[in-house]
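If you are new to this repository, start here. Below is one unmodified record pulled from the training split, so you can see the exact layout before writing a loader.
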Amino acid sequence: MPRCDIATPEINAKLPEVRERTRQRLAAGEYKRDATLLLRHAQEGVVTDYDAVIHEQVGALKLHFLARDFFQNNPFILPAFTGYVREQAAASGAKFLVDAYCGSGLFALSCAPAFERVAGIELSATSVKFATENAAANGITNATFRAGDAAQIFAGLEFPPADTAVVIDPPRKGCDESFLSQLFAYSPRAVVYVSCDPTTLARDLAALQATYRIDELHLVDLFPQTFHLETVVTLSRRT
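And here is the target side for that same chain:
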């Protein structure tokens, strides 16, 4: 395939070089069967190294993270996307925010100006390291991050649930039963659920609606010219 019509010009310009290098590495036996190659159009050009540190600008935020760690892959829509999540979480009236799948801090740091304190929780230790560095680099002092145990996501959290909103942006498989049980036990004021898979979102919403009501549902065209859509659902605790 000489070019991809929905890729950026920068990625298409890099394809011949990447293709040739890939063939050489394949011939040398460096790849396992079904290996996946990632090309990302980032601030510093097209990144093709799995262990490279990528730099992105999202509005006024300057963020960096490892190529192998998760980060939303359409930088052009991220200011509007994160701004909407911030508005929805803040509209709940909550004073505190928990970002339960915080990664390198995208939502937590984007939302920080609207809250007294923000806590980011993430299973990946490297993501927590970068999130902490990103907070310091952007002069954000009301956000802290920790590597959380999957079985004790909210353990030790000092925020009162009645004054707390929780942002969740889980992987495609959605939230597991353990996470939902912990969320219900913590019982925050509001939940903003960011999903990349409507099937697992529907499954999780069926469980959430026992305790929460859906206030708003918003679609984000994060993957233009494909059938994929990102969904943001705002839920508030039933009285």
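Two things worth knowing about this chain: The chain is about 30% helix and 25% strand. The CA atoms of residues 82 and 107 lie 6 Å apart.
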